[in-house]
Write a structure and sequence with these properties.
The chain has helices at residues 2-12, 35-50, 58-74, 84-92, 94-115, 125-132, 139-149; strands at 26-29, 119-122. By secondary structure, the chain is mostly helical. It has a two-stranded antiparallel sheet. α3 (58-74) packs antiparallel against α4 (84-92). It is elongated. It starts with a helix and ends with a helix. 21% of the residues are buried.
């Protein structure tokens, strides 16, 4: 459950990377939302992305197909001698497939939040600075994000 909360906060909360040229951090807001509803919605939507069965999504299929091919090549006589299995894995682009799967999961969470009446809210630089003072996952951070979300 703790991991789900962290996912929810990560998806609803704003990022605080340090680059002035970047776009402002965003959170999700819904005017007048109560704290309990806000947290329930965050957790409920995060669960949708977290528990999504990605097995039939194209990035997962490409990832699995590449590693199955690599496994087959490794199990052929002399299979470990060449670099065919390594090339098979490289062609799979595992990092890209992971990013693509993550984007699918985040999309599910964003659709859920939108369906519940939330919309993106850009944070000012001052709000980002204040947010950075609160440890990720802390009650204080959740309360601060709620204050921003409910306005």
């Amino acid at each position: 459950m703790r991991r789900i909360l962290m996912v929810a906060v990560g998806l609803i909360g704003a990022t605080t990377a340090q680059a002035d040229a970047r776009a402002p951090a965003e959170t999700w807001g819904k005017p007048g939302v109560g704290y309990d509803e806000y947290r329930d919605d965050a957790i409920g939507c995060a669960k949708i992305g977290y528990f999504r069965d990605v097995a039939q999504d194209k990035p997962a299929k490409r990832f699995i197909r590449g590693f199955e091919t690599a496994d087959l090549l490794l199990n052929l006589p002399g299979g470990g001698a060449g670099d065919g299995w390594e090339n098979s894995i490289r062609r799979t682009q595992p990092d890209r497939q992971k990013r693509d799967l993550h984007a699918i999961q985040v999309g599910d969470v964003e659709r859920c939040l939108t369906d519940k009446g939330y919309s993106r809210v850009a944070l000012t630089r001052a709000e980002e600075k204040t947010l950075a003072r609160y440890p990720r996952g802390s009650e204080a951070r959740h309360r601060y994000l709620h204050a921003l979300a409910a306005r």
